[in-house]
């Protein structure tokens, strides 16, 4: 195990972590506005990737048209989910709403591969396969560009919270009743949050689809995204950035160092272990607000 | 007319405290029991092994999960892992030569210990975070089972379970395993029914409604949550042993994946949170609806000549689970049990519309 291999794992891991973080930024966005953890975020990423595949391959649009188109469609789908499913859960126990998003996850996971075929779909976003060689480490070009796009989107969403609409959303996340009383349309803000997080999911889905192909396994991004969201603090988008890099690094290093010893599979363990450890030591995450009721 | 009464009136505390208060309900329970006892003698072995046996086993599992989710209000998305622990623990115990009766209890205890150890850590948080902690538990248990050869016998291996004898009766034959599984199912059902009217059950209900309100009136909410985890995990472990010895007879890690946990949660929600009858309904619907739908789609594809792809048919069960969870949560959050209850209430005073309650 030499230093350059470790460095290579670390650099690629950080970019992978950025791409995971894009999925969990959507979870955080919804949690911040409505207090519901969206367990369907992985399936939304998968659906978005399938949408881009429909546009790019079935209809034959160039990818720079198909991907934004898919994002626009997914914005609508996200807003519709809020209007026709989540809004009816208001007043029900929180767990009902979470179960509803889980039902959505399961349904989408059956629906999209069922209709479009379960074989792995290729999507080409025009990034050459040749790695970038930097000194004596290799950087995967897809991961690099994907990581940078994800980083840009997350930073954009941090900036978004300073815009007028962003301030509205912060008000909604702070106190829904108080926002109502000063004339903020709370439902609309939550619907926009769902739409935006579906757009983020679509971007992440397309980027991941470009690296590993599009099939149902894209919805497994959910577990990593949850780990990042919990580690970063469920209501903090900057936390997602930090936690994303941490999870990506740990996962990449675990694959490189532990896997040869125990024979593979530690990649999937990292996310679960991070969830459990975070909940034990610091349930509100690195940057989250401390408001979890302890028993 | 069917129940021969207009409203429910009790003339003694004793009659009000009975498990089934109406004579008609008692008759119905006896009738269902008789049908369940006679069925294996009447129906084909294929239906017994393919439908009846798994239905009773999964209903028992749903009862265990419902005890935790509906009874104590704690979400558990890793119940499949609990069942896996029970199955592997009892199978290994039996392979060491421990008699089946003890091996089964050992499986239950192993599940209860691991389940409540995770519960104790996870119970520091609740609601949403508890859901995620149990989700994480599922994948950690999966990982440990697959990657420790002493448990699973290697990554892709299946573990053969030695033939079981219960009190000297050989359980390798299907009809006998069915009766044994039914016996365990009845015991668990009676236990859960009776917990509902004990102080334990009332404490759990208080914790479910609001844990700090329960603490205010002197219910130690952490202790009762942990007890609920213990009991529910114990039932899960027993179900695991039943699965290993009476149904699968050879177990492998992929029988207990996250998909199983999701199915169990779907059973509980579709059947009705906190309803004992609902567990049976939910298990039946989640088990049989995909099969029926698949056959219907297959028949439709043949008769209409439409090409329905194998991919779609393979994904129909998932689609259906998800749609059923969503549909029930949106339209009837209390599940099939509530629908049954509505019908029963209607028939209770039929032909009149309202009953004095």
Radius of gyration of chain B using CA atoms only: 21 Å
* Amino-to-carboxy terminus distance of chain B: 17 Å
* Alpha-beta classification of chain A: mainly alpha
The name of the CATH topology of chain B is ABC transporter involved in vitamin B12 uptake, BtuC
Order of helices and strands of chain B: HHHHHHHEEEHHHHEHHHH
Instruction: Provide the helix percentage of chain B.
Output: over 70%
How many helix segments of chain B? 15
Biggest sheet strand order of chain A reads 1-2
What is the percentage of strand-forming residues of chain A?
under 5%
Number of strands of chain A: 2
Shape of chain B: globular
- Quaternary state, please? heterodimer
Q: Would you give an account of this structure?
A:
The complex is a heterodimer of chains A (295) and B (357). In chain A, helix 1 runs parallel beside helix 5. With 295 residues, chain A is mostly helical. Chain A has one domain: ABC transporter involved in vitamin B12 uptake, BtuC (Orthogonal Bundle). Chain A has 12 helices and 2 strands. Chain A has a two-stranded antiparallel sheet with strand order 1-2. Chain B is globular. The two termini of chain B are 17 Å apart. Chain B has a single domain, classed as Orthogonal Bundle (ABC transporter involved in vitamin B12 uptake, BtuC). The interface between A and B is large, with 48 and 52 residues. Chain B: Keywords: Cell membrane, Membrane, Transmembrane, Transmembrane helix. Chain B: GO terms for molecular function: branched-chain amino acid transmembrane transporter activity.
């Amino acid at each position: 195990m030499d230093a350059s291999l470790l460095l290579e794992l670390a650099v690629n891991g950080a970019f992978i972590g950025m791409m995971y973080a894009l999925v969990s930024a959507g979870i955080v966005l919804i949690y911040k506005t409505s207090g519901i953890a969206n367990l369907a975020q992985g399936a939304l990423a998968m659906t978005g990737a399938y949408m881009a595949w429909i546009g790019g391959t079935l209809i034959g649009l160039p990818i720079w048209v198909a991907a934004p188109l898919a994002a626009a469609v997914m914005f609508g789908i996200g807003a519709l989910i809020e209007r026709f499913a989540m809004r009816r859960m208001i007043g029900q126990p929180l767990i009902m709403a979470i179960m509803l998003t889980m039902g959505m996850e399961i349904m989408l996971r059956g629906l999209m591969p069922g209709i479009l075929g379960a074989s792995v779909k290729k999507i080409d976003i025009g990034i050459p396969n040749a790695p970038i060689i930097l000194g004596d480490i290799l950087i995967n070009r897809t991961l690099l560009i994907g990581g940078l796009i994800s980083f840009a989107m997350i930073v954009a969403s941090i900036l978004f919270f300073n815009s007028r609409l962003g301030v509205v959303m912060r008000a909604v996340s702070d106190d829904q009743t108080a926002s109502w009383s000063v004339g903020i349309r709370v439902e609309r803000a939550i619907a926009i949050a769902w739409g935006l997080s579906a757009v983020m999911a679509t971007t992440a889905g397309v980027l991941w689809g470009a690296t590993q192909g599009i099939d149902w396994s894209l919805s497994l991004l959910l577990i990593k995204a949850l780990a990042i969201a919990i580690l970063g603090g469920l209501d903090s988008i900057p936390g997602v950035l930090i936690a994303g890099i941490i999870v990506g690094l740990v996962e990449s290093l675990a694959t490189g160092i532990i896997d040869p010893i125990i024979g593979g599979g530690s990649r999937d363990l990292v996310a679960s272990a991070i969830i459990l450890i975070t909940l034990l030591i610091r349930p509100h995450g690195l940057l989250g607000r401390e408001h979890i009721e302890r028993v | 007319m069917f129940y021969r009464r207009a409203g429910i009136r009790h003339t003694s505390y004793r009659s009000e405290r009975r498990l089934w208060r109406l004579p008609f309900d008692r008759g119905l329970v006896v009738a269902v029991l008789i049908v369940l006892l006679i069925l294996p003698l009447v129906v084909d072995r294929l239906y017994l092994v393919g439908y009846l046996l798994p239905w009773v086993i999964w209903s028992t599992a749903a009862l265990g999960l419902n005890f935790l989710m509906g009874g104590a209000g704690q979400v558990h998305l890793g119940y499949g892992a609990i069942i896996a622990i029970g199955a592997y623990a009892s199978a290994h115990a039996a392979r060491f030569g421990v008699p089946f009766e003890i091996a089964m209890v050992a499986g239950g205890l192993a599940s209860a210990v691991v389940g409540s150890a995770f519960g104790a850590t996870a119970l520091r948080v609740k609601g949403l975070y508890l859901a995620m902690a149990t989700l994480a538990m599922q994948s950690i248990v999966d990982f440990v089972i697959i990657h420790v050869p002493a448990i699973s016998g290697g990554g892709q291996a299946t573990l053969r379970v030695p033939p079981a004898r219960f009190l000297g009766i050989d359980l390798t034959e299907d009809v006998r395993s069915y009766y044994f599984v039914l016996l365990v199912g009845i015991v668990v059902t009676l236990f859960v029914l009776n917990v509902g009217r004990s102080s334990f059950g009332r404490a759990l209900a208080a914790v479910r409604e609001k844990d700090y309100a329960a603490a205010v009136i002197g219910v130690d909410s952490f202790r009762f949550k942990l007890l609920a985890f213990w009991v529910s995990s114990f039932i899960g472990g027993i179900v695991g042993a039943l699965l290993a010895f009476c149904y699968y007879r050879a177990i492998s890690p992929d029988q207990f994946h996250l998909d199983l946990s999701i199915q169990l949660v779907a059973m509980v929600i579709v059947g009705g949170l906190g309803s004992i009858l609902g567990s049976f309904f939910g298990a039946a619907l989640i088990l049989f609806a995909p099969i029926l739908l698949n056959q219907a789609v297959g028949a439709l594809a043949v008769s209409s000549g439409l090409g329905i792809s194998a991919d779609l048919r393979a994904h129909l069960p998932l689609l259906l689970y998800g749609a059923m969870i969503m549909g029930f949560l949106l339209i009837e959050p209390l599940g099939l049990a509530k629908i049954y209850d509505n019908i029963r209430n209607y028939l209770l005073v039929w032909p009149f519309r309202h009953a004095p309650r």
